[in-house]
Amino acid sequence: MIRLSFFVLRLLFIVYRPSFIEQQATSNEQQTTNIKYIMENKLEVWKKAHQLTLKVYELTKQFPSSEQFGLTSQLKRCAGSIPSNIIEGQSRQYKKEFIQFLYISKGSLSETEYHLFLAKDLKYITEDQYQDISTDIISIRMMLNKLISSLK
To answer: Pick from 2, 4, 52, 138: CA 20 to 30 A from residue 32's CA?
Structure first.
């Protein structure tokens, strides 16, 4: 009987707390605002990686439709993985985990670099486009190396 009463009281307490629900809604709005702020003010390496991803998406628009599920898809996934892993690693609790995610980003960066090289050889992008994006890749790789070194 006591257990049931406690359960009923607790249930009533939860159900009849409109201020809690209002606080929850306000909290969700603040969280959305915070996420936007965080995404706009992340590490410089994340910003550059995000710009690289946008460039890759723009470049792949000119690829042949026969590559839609091949090179185009793979290139978009590995390019998007670079900033994604930086963000995910930064949100981890331990520095060692962050470093591991930065290494994963470096791997995705190398994969992106190769796929762009392949696209150039297949004449899907020009030499100038390849050189332009390669400069960004080198810059991001150097920034990742420097960030990893500073965290060790």
So the answer is: 52
